[in-house]
Design a protein that fits this description.
The structure holds two protein chains of two kinds.
Chain A lengths: L1 H22 L13 E8 L8 H16 L3 E8 L1 H13 L6 E5 L7 H6 L7 H7 L1 H6 L2 H6 L1 E2 L2 E2 L2 E2 L9 E4 H6 L8 H14 L4 E4 L2 H7 L1 H4 L8 E3 L5 E3 L6 H14 L11 H9 L3 E4 L5 H14 L5 E4 L19 E4 L7 H13 L1 H9 L7 E4 L2 E3 L5 H4 L21 E2 L4 H13 L18 H22 L6 H14 L1 H14 L3
Helix pairs in contact in A: 12-19, 15-16, 19-20
Chain B lengths: L5 H32 L3 H7 L11 H9 L2 H31 L7 H13 L4 H10 L7 H4 L6 H12 L3 H9 L4 H9 L4 H17 L2 H6 L8 H10 L8 H4 L7 H33 L5
Helix pairs in contact in B: 1-15, 3-15, 4-8, 4-11, 5-8, 9-10, 11-15, 13-15
Classes of the chains: A alpha/beta, B mainly alpha.
Chain lengths: 510, 292
């Protein structure tokens, strides 16, 4: 009896343990509406559910059918970026349909993870050759390079502006001090001193050291952001912090902190605290994530807090040797990866190819139906249709959920709510300010589980802790140790730097 | 009356001081959250966070409810999950705990072992996901109720409590002709009120704060519980503000104050209920902990 009981319990336990496996065998839902092929796209980011999403979806599917003869049933599942990986992993484990995963590239948590860890993507190279003529025409090669690994295109890339940065400054404070809008580092320093002397509570400039790298010092001293990579005189790719000119950047940062020209708490201050300082009129220059649309948002808040405030977004400052540039942002920030499990890779390429093939298609997916979700108000701007005010008080009309990737080379209509000054700032930032040509952000390095990779990682951390951070915090002028530290780093990590260089030139032809 | 020694007095003063300080570290941040939620956005931006609201206004609460219609829906979802889930969870756990306290239950040792085993080893995320999905609970409220019905930790407390009850109490009822069910319902359960309150609070807090299962299993935003909404709003405020004016950048959103308002809204029900159950809670935690 006792033996039988134990056997029964063992059988029960076995059954319980097998249950999850059996539950994974449920039928996959691959069907769409009628004879339409369902395309399921997982999107990591922020999109708002709109009141007219269903109507826009129907219009897109109808137009796509008319143009290509393919019936599709689009389904875009939106998740917070931080949840996307978990959702994808579980969906794959559960045998669910995923035809596209949209995320950023160039970071370990984005699409590179799928390429890096288990290569479960579909190589899109032949499909883009066959179905992607418009993509090849409208998307620059640099974007395709960003989503290419071992000669395989692992995602359909998007294309965004490389020029996105500006320096937001209090123009009324400059006027008060009788100073012109600064165009050189020297004039900028004079302005910061005037701001500092204005009031003992004022922090002349707020923003982090990486923001400083993006818009102020490296561009003026002909080098790149410390976390970027650059091509040296011999064409070798190198980490930004090894550039000999970065020594001057560090020295200047140290001096500015010492002089009280830059926020001494820049390393520890929160982003909202930076915002608060500037909005409340306790900072004269704002470079905390100096992306132009974010700066416009901050500038508007300043105007609400102080209607008399006058602001200006200025371009890169010229250094003593005549160099002036902002750092480039990624031309390709994200893309859509088609998992190897998808049976609709060709249709996915056709869909995105259709999107970029005609501005009308892109605008339909990005902004919705003209006349319903937006109206053309001229000069490349869009406005709200009449009578939409009541709806938008509680709900968006359409937030571009079926577009999912940006193609600024196809269309980029701003809302007509921007002022002339704001439009001028945007135009300058996107088209008129020089960008540092050598900067390479988000270079994709495959995981290396080797001793040399670990040594490189440790040495990088040590370099930052011993040379970069003390200067950025105003604790120690490390410029006298800089050259020796760079040489020592290069010698100790020669094998890894050589591997990086070889990998870069083999996989990222330009 | 016992007279305290000088050493005891010093010890008490030190204890009170230390515990007050410790309590303040919990209370002050919450007071700042409440204060910020009742302050004017621009004043907060200008002057930072304060203990007393500056520029008193309820605009953040109005904004949170008007601009994010799912907020109210999420609160109702959480209340519904609590009303259905907690009694179900209590019923399952108390019945199971009572049964497991009986040594004559066939397989009692194996069942106890299996229960404790799950406290130390989990099946893993993927099998859990596959199981819930396979049982047809994906994107259903049941995915947030059924997996939370059974807590090994609570069950150990309950089992130990019933185990520690005098055997004579139940024997008297059985001799008088009561069934085990009647004995459980009329004798054992009424003596377990503090434990019921304790497990009730545990289950309520767990149900109210559960965002992770919702993140895994709920795809329809209208079924989100409040804590998942709070998390989403905290990660990206604009994501859940379904307001086109905000998307167009026409309106300056009260980002800081509305975030705080959402936190207050989400935490208020538990804060209101807790004082009423506190005395049972303190008693109950000890009740199942020691066997005599």
């Amino acid at each position: 009896m006792k033996k039988t009981g134990k056997r029964l319990l063992a059988a029960l336990l076995l059954l319980v343990m097998c249950l999850p496996m059996m539950t994974g065998c449920d039928k996959k839902d691959v069907s769409g509406d009628g004879d339409a092929t369902k395309l399921v796209i997982y999107y990591g980011g922020n999109k708002v559910v709109g009141a007219n999403d269903a109507e826009v979806k129907a219009a897109i599917e109808e137009k796509f059918y008319q143009d290509t003869g393919n019936k599709i049933d689009l389904e875009v599942k939106v998740f917070q970026t931080s949840d996307l990986n978990t959702k994808v992993d579980l969906a794959i484990a559960g045998g669910e349909q995923i035809d596209g995963i949209i995320s950023n590239v160039g970071s370990t948590t984005g699409l590179d993870r799928f390429v890096n860890e288990n290569a479960f993507f579909t190589d899109l190279t032949p499909l883009i050759d066959e179905y992607g003529s418009a993509l090849k025409e409208k998307v620059p090669q640099i974007a395709f390079d960003t989503v290419t690994s071992d000669g395989k295109i692992f995602a359909i890339p998007e294309i965004a502006y490389e020029g996105i940065y500006g320096i937001l400054i209090r123009k009324d404070w400059l006027d008060d001090a009788g100073l012109p809008i600064p165009t050189t580092i020297e004039e900028f320093e004079t302005a910061l001193r005037a701001f500092r002397d204005r009031d003992s509570n004022i922090v002349p400039m707020v923003g982090y050291h990486w923001d400083m790298d993006r818009v102020i010092l490296p561009g003026a001293y002909n080098c790149v952001q410390a976390s970027y990579f650059y091509l040296d005189g011999n064409g070798n790719i190198m980490p930004g912090f090894l550039n000999p000119n970065y020594k001057t950047v560090l020295e200047t940062e140290y001096n500015w902190i010492q002089e009280g020209l830059w926020d001494i708490d820049n390393a520890s201050r929160t982003a909202s605290s930076c915002d608060n300082l500037f909005i409340s009129g306790r900072a004269g220059v704002y470079i905390q994530y100096p992306e132009i649309m974010a700066e416009i948002d901050i500038a508007r808040k300043v105007k609400v807090a102080d209607p008399d405030a006058e602001l200006e977004v200025i371009g890169p400052l010229t250094g003593p040797d005549g160099y002036a540039s902002f750092q480039k942002a990624n031309a390709c920030f994200g893309g859509v990866l088609v998992p190897a499990t998808s049976e609709n890779a060709a249709l996915m390429v056709q869909y995105y190819n259709w999107l970029v093939s005609d501005p009308a298609n892109y605008e339909l997916a990005k902004y919705g139906r003209e006349g319903y979700e937006w109206v053309d108000v001229g000069e490349g701007l869009r406005g709200l249709p009449e009578g939409a005010e009541d709806i938008i008080a509680t709900s968006a009309l359409y937030d571009g959920i079926f577009c999912t990737l940006d193609y600024t080379t196809v269309s980029d209509r701003l809302w007509d709510t921007y002022t002339e000054q704001e439009l001028r700032w945007i135009d300058n930032v996107r088209h008129n300010y020089p960008l540092h040509g050598d900067a390479r952000e988000g270079v994709f390095w495959p995981d290396q589980d080797s001793e040399m990779a670990k040594n490189y990682s440790t040495a990088s951390d040590n370099f930052k802790n011993e040379i970069l951070t003390p200067a950025r915090n105003g604790l120690l002028n490390t410029s006298d140790k800089f050259d020796a530290a760079v040489e020592s780093f290069k010698t100790a990590n020669a094998d890894y730097l050589a591997w990086m260089n070889e990998y870069y030139h083999e996989h990222k032809p330009e | 009356m016992l007279k305290r020694t000088r050493g005891e007095k010093i010890f008490n003063v030190f204890n009170i001081f230390l515990l007050t300080l410790f309590s303040l570290t919990f209370v002050i941040p919450y007071l700042i959250v409440v204060s910020t939620s009742l302050s004017d956005e621009l004043t907060v931006l200008r002057d930072g966070y304060t203990l007393i609201p500056k520029g008193f206004t309820t605009a953040a609460y109005e904004f949170a409810f008007k601009s994010s219609p799912i907020l109210l829906r999420a609160i109702l979802n959480s209340v519904g999950l609590l009303i259905v889930g907690v009694p179900m969870s209590m019923a399952v756990q108390f019945i199971a705990g009572y049964a497991l306290s009986k040594r004559f239950l066939p397989g009692h040792r194996v069942l106890n072992f299996l229960m404790v085993f799950t406290m130390m080893f989990g099946g893993g995320l993927v099998p859990f996901y596959l199981l819930v999905r396979g049982l047809g609970m994906y994107n259903s409220y049941w995915s947030l109720i059924i997996p939370g019905l059974f807590s090994s930790y609570n069950l150990v407390l309950i089992r130990n409590f019933f185990d520690g009850q005098p055997a004579a109490l139940e024997e008297a009822a059985l001799i008088d002709g009561a069934s085990y069910w009647q004995s459980f319902w009329r004798i054992s359960l009424p003596t377990a009120k503090p434990l019921i309150a304790t497990i009730g609070v545990f289950s309520m807090v767990s149900s109210w704060n559960n965002w992770y299962n919702a993140m895994l299993f709920i795809s329809d935003i209208n079924k989100y519980p409040i804590m998942l909404v709070v998390r989403q709003i905290y990660i990206d405020f604009n994501a859940l503000v379904a307001n086109a004016a905000a998307i167009q950048g026409i309106t300056i959103l009260p980002t800081e104050t509305a975030k705080m308002a959402v936190i207050v809204i989400a935490s208020l029900p538990i804060i209101i209920v807790y004082p009423f159950l506190q005395k049972y809670f303190v008693q109950g935690v000890m009740l199942g902990a020691v066997k005599e």
